[in-house]
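Subject: Sanity check before I submit

Could someone independently write out the structure tokens for this chain? I want to compare against mine line by line before I put it in a report. The sequence has 279 residues.
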Amino acid sequence: MEAPLQTPVFDGEGPFRAVLWHESAIDPLFDPAEPERWFAPEERAALAALGLNAKRRREWLAARVALKSLLVADGVARRPADAIVRKDARGCPRVVVWEADTGRYEEIACSLSHSAPFVFCAYARGRAAAVGVDVEPRTMRLSFLRRKFLSPEDRMLPKDDAAGDDTLIWSFKESLSKLLGTGWGCGFPNLQCRETDPGSCELVDAAGVARPGRYRWFGRWAVTATWQSPEPPAPPAPLPERSLFDRLTRASRLRRLRAARRLAAEASGFPATRPPDPF
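---
Independent answer below. Compare away.
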């Protein structure tokens, strides 16, 4: 299946929103003469730092215009420039939504990927949610590099497409490494990818934590996503159980407290209880 210029992917699959764009989709949206409409000053400085490298500038612009368009369409940000894409200490992108007139500030996990002519981006829904995505062309090159990224536990359902399976496994491990914030430093052979159903995989990191994954083909391009759901709120702590002595003496303690309040009210000249309403 070929992707149109803008395609939502994996809607309703997890706590995230993702969209696949063709690079040409940004042309009617982004005006180089008005970068301030889309980007904050720090982002414009990052774009200028790319110099005259047309390919990198195109990828950088396409990924961020796609992500900001999705955030505005979903009502997460009012304007593209209010959604600032920054890198954290590990080099992972995050969206900072900052509205100067209202003082609203929110940080959102996101993930960006590009493989010309496509860009694939996603943002997580929920404070503790995270997402990692990747877009990868089907290629025989990965079949010659299998020892660099395969794990003995990697398993794909039989489909007589070794190159496609290798592409999916590589792409899933790219997505998981982005979610973890480690990049290639995690060691791809330490990650496991097991296909459980067509289009669905279970991904396991080096610590043994399993996460769900989804994939879809657009022509010869595979898109993959994995996510981490926000943790459910902790249940309220149970009230401490009263001892038998407390339960037996509670009535007498309440009687003494009421008597003390009545004496204090009489000494001050005020009634111990509210007088009845005359009306």
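---
OP: Matches mine. For the report I'm noting this point. The chain has one domain: 6-228.
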